[in-house]
Fold this protein.
Amino acid sequence: MKKSLSLSVQAVYVLITALQLIFVPNMLLGMFGFEPTSEVWIKVLGIILLSLVMVYYAIIQSGDYKILKMTIYSRLTVVLGFFILVATGQAATPLILFAGIDLATAIWTWFELKKA
């Protein structure tokens, strides 16, 4: 299978988000209407996302259909989780914007796999 453009776009999005969370977390939080924070956990999340980018890169390079398909389910899990957090009042509505990007790239990957 050829390399996945949709997962490449997802990886770039996650990389940019990770770097923002590590180095300028309050700028990113402010863009989406979240309160600034001085907690270390937001940077921890950025580091975890940075490691996910490395996994995405390996998946892209391998072109493995089954693993690429699993990324669709993992991104849809993120979407569902974000919607639940917003619906139960545990997170602000702008979190849905992040879910939208994950949903869009998951659907795109699904179409890529159907064509393969």
About this structure: The mean pLDDT is 94. The chain has one domain: 5-115.
